[in-house]
Amino acid sequence: MPKKARELSAIEVKRLTAPGLFAVGGVAGLHLQVTKSGARSWVLRVKVGAKRRDIGLGGYPDVPLTDARAKARAKREQIAAGIDPVEERRAARLSLLAQTQRLTFDEATEKFLALKRHEFRNPKHAAQWESTLATYAAPVIGRKRVDEITLAHIEDMLTRDALWTNKTETAKRLRGRVEKVLDWATAGGHRTGDNPARWRGNLDARLPNPGKVATKGHHAALPIDDMPRFKRHLAAMEGSGARCLEFAILTATRSREAKGARWAEIDLDAKLWTIPAERMKARKEHRVPLSRAAVGLLKALPRHEGTDLVFPSARGKLLSENTLTAVIKRMDGAIPEGQGYRDPNTAGIVTTHGFRSTFRDWAGERTAYPGDICEMALAHTIKNKAEAAYRRGDLLEKRRHLMQDWAKFCAEGTAQGNATPIRRASDA
Questions:
Q1: CB of 262 within 8 A of CB of 308?
Q2: pLDDT tens digit string along 363-399?
Q3: Exposed end of the chain (fewer CB within 10 Å): N or C?
Q4: Reduced to 3 states, what is the DSSP secondary structure of residue 33?
Q5: Mean per-residue pLDDT over the chain, rounded
Q6: Using omega within 30 degrees of 0 as the cis cutoff, is the peptide bond preceding 223 cis?
Q7: pLDDT in tens, 145-182
Q8: What is the 3-state secondary structure (H, E, C) of 97-111?
Q9: Is 277 or 99 the better-scoring residue by pLDDT?
């Protein structure tokens, strides 16, 4: 049997300052370890099964002799009960580490957006992601760890306040965005298993098909014959918003494309506006032939110091989303009731995007221009993949005639485009 160590007193232990390992007695295997630097700590040398263990019990004098003996007795009792204190401590440490590595959904969203922000089409797109998740996801699952989120939580989020039925398009985007955040969390090892926000084979068995819940609404559009009246009224309006709206109408572009127009994109001599791919919905560069009216509008505009924006706000920034809408509402409110700028199908005030519909209706009903030229003027993607593969040009010169006829119709109200020849007789 090993020799039993003499039980040292607290004073004797205090005098142990030379480097080494000293048995202090009281509990078998309890030692005071003194390093060359003078640091002292408690070590319990004990055999656990077939393994020799040195179990640390804390530093001296922070842990006094009496406490060290109490800790040593407790460890020996664990060993007698079949528990390995070292393995138990390691498991506890790993469990704590795992918990600190588990993200909440809000934290996962923040990290995901920081990583993916460069992939968004523009800052507005990124802001839409943030807004959707903050408004609808955060109140329901934001504080939950990503590994705790279940199908029931996602279903609750999508159906709360009848979101899935009353705001179906928003709910669809929300579901897709939550799915992507959780996919990212799974790939990063923060969660395992199926994605509870997945639609196919998952939520499609719990929620009605979004295509059958609500019918897509169309943007309120101005009747063709009201266009000249609206254009004359708009020309009399002042402000950057009014000029931007007028430019958007003359070019048949989307409001965000017109608002983001920069002088560096415009060649007044060539009567051409080249919108870079990153600002286009289809992520493809779009060349817009400028009519004489559009060129005249641009030449009359002042250049603003400190910004290259063609239509800046008063602070030299991008116009807000509601600026162009506000112009239309002021115009509608300035004329007698019943003579306003309304869509006859919905009775709603026309929208900025609706003028693209007016342009398309005019081109299709009042002119002989082929549909592909009209669609290209609107920068619509060719849905027929075979046709898209063979289409190399953008029909710029043909579209130049189209946009000139459109500008003339907006100003005069005459169907100038219906007599425009598409091909010369000699070309047939």
A1: yes
A2: 999 999 999 899 999 988 665 555 554 455 678 999 9
A3: N
A4: strand
A5: 86
A6: no
A7: 999 999 999 999 999 988 898 888 889 999 999 999 99
A8: HHHHHCCEHHHHHHH
A9: 277
Under the banding of pLDDT at 50, 70 and 90, the label for residue 63 is very high
Cα(377)–Cα(394) distance, integer angstroms: 9
Burial of 174 (0-12, 13-18, 19+ CB in 10 A): buried
CA–CA gap between residue 370 and residue 133 (Å, rounded): 43
Task: Tell me the helices (H) and strands (E) count for the chain, helix number first.
Answer: 19, 7
The answer to whether residues 68 and 42 touch, using CB atoms and an 8 Å cutoff, is yes
The closest alpha carbon to 255, from 351, 161, 342, 155, belongs to 351
Q: What is the DSSP string of 124-163?
A: HHHHHHHHHIIIIIHHHHTTSBGGG--HHHHHHHHHGGGH
Distant-in-sequence, close-in-space partners of 222: CB < 8 Å, separation ≥ 6? 230, 341, 343, 350, 354, 355, 358
Q: How far is CA 320 from CA 316, 323, 356, in A?
A: 12, 5, 20
**Type of residue numbered 115:** L
Domains of the chain: 10-100 (3.30.160.390), 105-213 (1.10.150.130), 224-427 (1.10.443.10)
Q: Residues near 378 by Cβ (< 8 Å), separated by ≥ 6?
A: 252, 356, 359, 360
Residue 91: what pLDDT? 67
At 387 the three-state DSSP class reads helix
Q: Are strands 266-267 and 51-60 parallel, antiparallel or unpaired?
A: unpaired
Residues ≥6 apart with Cβ < 8 Å to 236: none
